[in-house]
Structures are given as C-alpha cells and as structure tokens.
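Message: I would love a firmer grasp of how sequence relates to backbone shape in proteins. Thank you; the sequence and its tokens follow:
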Amino acid sequence: MFSKESAMQLPLKIFLATVVLSLALFFFVIYDSMAGNNLQNVPSEAVKGKMVFQKRACIECHTVFGNGGYYGGDLTKAYEKFGSNGLREYLTQPPLLSGAKKKRHIYLSNEEAEEITAYFRFLQSIPNMDWPPRPVYDKKEEPGVK
C-alpha cells in the first residue's frame, strides 16, 4: 500500500505540521497580548508633570512604584493622601523638611505644581494591586500603655 518513501516522509510531515502549528499559536499569543492590553492614554498634563518630576530629580528622594529614593517617602499614592489642594499648597509653599532647621522642600511654580499634581492623579489611576503595601500595625495595646 505505502511505498517506502512515503512511509519515511510521514515523520517529516508530522514534524513540519507541529512546527507550523507552534508558530501559528506563538503569533496568536503575541497578537492577543498586544491587542488585549488596556493601556490608557496618558493625559498631556500628566506627561508634563512627569517631565517636572524628572527635571527636579524628585526620584532622588522619593519613591514611585517602589523605585527611587527612600528619604522623602513614596509618592505613588500621594494624590489619594493629600488631594489636589494639599499637593499644590505643599509644592508652592514648601514647609521645612523634617529634621532640618532651615532647609525646605524645593519650591515649584504654580504651573509646575499643577502639572505634577496631574502626574500624581494619573499615577493614582494606574491599577497597581494596592502596591505599595501599607504597614500593618498591631492594634494590641502594650501592657502598661494606655
């Protein structure tokens, strides 16, 4: 029924079919991952705020999404914590830095404060699965402390 040549080609055909199917599956997965992403458009004000953040080198002292300096604290949730007015006031009328007698946080113009506030608002909108984690404090009272 089958010639010796066609019997030898069967493993080759199976191999080629497996390669073609694997490549098709690979390209489908790549296409699906690229087409299914939910990247949101970054507002232009947030982009300008990011530029202020970079120009002022805020990352040297502050952390965003776990990256950056640890001296000034994490700003990933700064918008949630302080709101627009709180951020603008802090950035345009900077207080003395904690532990310093005369050194203040850098001053930003009203325009820069608006832009960086927009950047923090955008950061707030990024789903981050509650990162960074918040510290959990033990609510048990210590003996003798009221």
The mean pLDDT is 85. The radius of gyration is 28 Å. Strands lie at 62-64, 67-68, 73-74.
